[in-house]
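Course assignment 3, question 2. Fill in each field.
Student: A.L.
Task: Predict the tertiary structure for the chain below.
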Amino acid sequence: MGRIAVLLAFVAACSAHAQDAKPPVSKHIAKIMARSDGLSEATAFKVSGVQDEYEIAAALGVKVTSQSLVLKKKAYDVLDCTDAEGKSVTLWFDINSFYPEF
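Answer field:
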């Protein structure tokens, strides 16, 4: 199963169990989510701002519990989240488009 299929299955599972209605996903966020799955450093979502990160988390139906800045060859925001069933989910975001060079 490809990364997109796994992500779509995850979204479907989350939506089946979500208690609150999720906001509609904008075309901008849908494009970001179509390019990667955000489940690792190698497949981090490439975002243009922190707001994108939280919109993606909302679209996936997860609750953000913490946010960390990770500096490697690139800069990443890492969101630790929980899904509707309480399972941990870690989302990676490539923030190099707006994070200052280090």
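Instructor remarks: The chain has a mean pLDDT of 86. Residues 3-94 form one domain.
Grade: pending
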